[in-house]
Each structure stands twice: as structure tokens, then as C-alpha cells.
Amino acid sequence: MLEKAIERKLMTLTKERGGYCPKFTSPGTAGMPDRIIILPGGKMGFVEVKAPGQQPRPLQKVQHKKLRDLDIPVYVLDSPDTDTITGILDAIQAA
């Protein structure tokens, strides 16, 4: 399964919750997570989308740690499984 298919499912399930899931792109942000998840109630987190079985690159791990050190949730998603994606969205909503 391609990373893009997992990303589309994340976007769809986020939208079904009334949320917004824009792609995070900006100069000077190499290694930052792919998507910002913004949910009702001002809840926010980041999701790094990977192909099944793939892991974040070293620079991505550094950026994830910087965000987590600021108490911003960061998740790595490598599965199109609805329960997995729902679990991530539930965790962001509960944060």
C-alpha cells in the first residue's frame, strides 16, 4: 500500500470528525511531520505518514522529539487500519 493511500484515509477520517488535516509544508521545515491534525475544541497534533513497515528517518526523529518536548503530540502512522487511525485521532482529541 502506498503512503498516499494511508494519508487519504487519515484525511477522510479527520474530516468525518469535523477536523482539518492540512499537509505541513514550509521552507526550512525538513523532517517535520507530514500532516497537522486540527480537531474541534482546539485540539492539535502531528502525524508522520509512512508506507507500511517504514520508520521515520533520523532527521524526522529529531523534529518529532522537538515537538514532543513542547508537549505537542506526534504520531507515526504506517497502516490504513481504521482502528489505528481512530486511535490516533482519539488520542489527539483527549490531549
TrEMBL record:
One of its GO terms (molecular function) is nucleic acid binding. The keyword Nuclease applies. Its cofactor is Mg(2+). Keywords: Hydrolase, Nuclease. InterPro entries: tRNA_endonuc-like_dom_sf, VRR_NUC. The keyword Nuclease applies. Residues 1-81 form the VRR-NUC domain. This is VRR-NUC domain-containing protein. It comes from Corynebacterium lujinxingii.
